[in-house]
Amino acid sequence: MLARVLPSRSLKAWVMTMAVIVAMLVGLSRVYLGAHWATDVFAGWSLGAAWAMALWLAANLIERFQRRHHAPLQDEAAPAG
What we know:
The chain is an all-alpha fold. It has 3 helices and no strands. It has helices at 2-5, 9-32, 38-68. α2 runs antiparallel to α3 (38-68).
């Protein structure tokens, strides 16, 4: 969600890359330390990816609805008059 509001494409890519790396390292460390089975970590990653896709879809649908109905986006000022 943070990447959607960042201005530059390279900054968006950096944020997404760092988020994936952190998630991978946390999951792998849990398996390495024996706190979780690999299947548990994989299930968590899958659920997290599904949740992220659902949020992305919801944000996309809201944005399309606002543009179709000429409603201002949340971070834009309403048109005067």
